Amino acid sequence: MNLPALWFILIGVLFVGYFFLEGFDYGVGMLLPFVGRTDDERRAVLATIGPVWDANEVWLITAGGAIFSAFPNWYATLFSGFYLALALLITALILRGVALEFRSKDDGKWWRSLWDFVIWLGSTIPGFVWGVAMGNILHGMPINGHMDYIGGFFTLLNPYALAGGCATGLLFVLHGALYLSLKTPSPLRERSMRIARKMSRLTMVAYFGFVVLSYFFADFVNTFGIDPGPVPLLAGSSMVAVGFLLRSGLLGWAFAMTALTIFLSTMSVFLALYPRVIISRLNPAWDLTVYNAASNHYSLTVMSIVAISALPFVLAYQIWTYWIFRKRVSLHETFHY
């Protein structure tokens, strides 16, 4: 396997980890006003993600850094094309992080309500923007022969991409509801379960609606690329399984199935793209690939050595963190949230 292909796979793994972990993180933030009715309940909701949310963000930072280092042309074209969207995303993430830390600095009702709203908004915007981004990447973007994006902000807001935003946003809400049902005490657990049951139907409609649209608007298979094969079918099967498991009361398995849906869906996107990283709607010859967008061989070699050396420690630390905070939270032990 050549180094550009290896780094494409590693970046895919980083995004899989990010969407799985930050997916329920976003979902918890979006559900905060609906699950928590009192201040103690909202503190308990936030305590489920309090010890881990910042570590979850590291996956995105690492993925962005990997794209910048391994595929500078991909980074330049992507960040120029999605400039306003990414600015909105980053602003939302910054405000969300500030809100999680500032909420407990004052006991005033207006103060905490303000930061609760910011947490909700800072979770909703990324959940939607990531789906819009994925929709545009699958659909293709107006990229010219100089690897420049020549569209505007509203070019990104096409119906197919907006459908992708709705699908990912709802999937993250469902993922978050199942996470809360596993991590919170009564009555939060029961509310989360009711929301999960309702959201499973709506999410399934949005998810499969986006899948159907993808067969008309997405360039799934390149003539020299990799056919995703059964992976999208397995992702759809996982999505269907969530509803059956919820009705059977198997919440842990239902959460595992939403995680598997996120994993396989993200994997499908990367398989459908390879060896491209950005599809040009103007001319297939202007597509950015893992070869014409990659750094030189020496840079990729050094990066590979560093990544292989550091990755086991990072994974071990995050696994240890989740193990330490694996128990349900208590309404009386919500730390400083």
Overview of this protein structure:
72% of the residues lie in helices and 1% in strands. With 337 residues, it is mostly helical. It has one domain: Formate dehydrogenase/DMSO reductase fold (Up-down Bundle). Strands 1-2 form a two-stranded antiparallel sheet. Helix 1 runs antiparallel to helix 6, helix 7 runs antiparallel to helix 10 and helix 8 packs antiparallel against helix 9. It starts with a helix and ends in a 13-residue tail after the last helix.
Average pLDDT metric: 88
Largest sheet: 2 strands, antiparallel
Order of helices and strands: HHHHHHHHHHEEH
CATH class categorisation? Mainly Alpha
Q: Output the number of helix runs.
A: 11
CATH names the topology as Formate dehydrogenase/DMSO reductase fold
Briefly summarize what is shown.
The protein is mainly α and 337 residues long. The chain has helices at 3-35, 39-47, 53-70, 72-81, 83-102, 109-139, 159-183, 188-217, 231-247, 251-273, 297-324, and strands at residues 276-278, 288-289.
Question: Layout of SSEs?
Answer:
Elements: H1 3-35, H2 39-47, H3 53-70, H4 72-81, H5 83-102, H6 109-139, H7 159-183, H8 188-217, H9 231-247, H10 251-273, E1 276-278, E2 288-289, H11 297-324
Antiparallel strand pairs: 1-2
Helix pairs in contact: 1-2, 1-3, 1-6, 1-7, 1-10, 3-4, 5-6, 6-7, 7-8, 7-10, 8-9, 9-10
